[in-house]
Design brief:
The protein is 50% helix and 16% strand. It is built from seven helices and five strands; from the N terminus they run H-H-H-E-E-E-E-H-H-E-H-H. The chain has 174 residues and is α+β, with helices and mostly antiparallel strands. 18% of the residues are buried. Strand 2 and strand 3 form a beta hairpin. The chain has one domain: 2-Layer Sandwich (Nonspecific Lipid-transfer Protein, Chain A). The protein has a five-stranded mixed sheet with strand order 3-2-1-4-5.
């Protein structure tokens, strides 16, 4: 599969990119704190202490940065702080990573997801993602179902994109 096969068209991503990073990151942090609460309480995200993880979803122009407040056992917004490690890629690759329908090593090796910065932090993030069980998450089954459905719908959007020009070229309107 080509790296850019499933890049979300700008017309679909433009509204998302208009949301200020502090607002989008705030929403993401809130969801992560609710979803990963048990992992936070058990200290499984302590590897983020004094570290900043930046995630760049390139095709929708969204970037957020998070860290951890160990005393409160919460994920915190770290937008504007220097990232220790950045993971970048397109939305589809992140969906594949989350639902484990493609091996993370393959996504990184083929440069569909790119990692830069603190390698040890990157390995900790990857190992943590590998350890997550949807059954253990609050709303886990619902989240898993939505993301898995997204990975099947997403490629169909791009098939439609390829069909529409052929159809419209056949029937030109004057």
């Amino acid at each position: 599969m080509k790296n850019n096969q499933y890049i979300l068209p700008k017309i679909l991503s433009a509204p998302i990119s208009l949301v200020p990073p502090t607002i989008s990151t705030g929403a993401i942090v809130m969801v992560l704190n609710k979803t990963l609460k048990s992992y936070l309480i058990n200290g499984e995200l302590d590897f983020l202490k004094d570290k900043v993880l930046s995630i760049k979803i390139e095709d929708i122009n969204v970037c957020f940065a998070v860290s951890i407040d160990e005393s409160k056992k919460t994920i915190i917004n770290a937008v504007g702080k220097q990232a220790d490690m950045t993971i970048a890629g397109n939305l589809y690759e992140f969906l594949l990573l989350i639902v484990r329908s493609e091996d993370p090593d393959t996504l990184f090796f083929n440069r569909r997801l790119k990692m830069s910065g603190d390698t040890e932090l990157g390995l900790n993030v990857k190992n943590f993602l590998d350890s997550i069980e949807f059954d253990d998450l609050k709303y886990g089954k619902t989240i898993e179902k939505i993301f898995k459905k997204s990975t099947t719908i997403y490629p169909k959007l791009f098939k439609l994109r390829d069909i529409v020009p052929k159809y419209s070229a056949k029937y030109k309107y004057s």
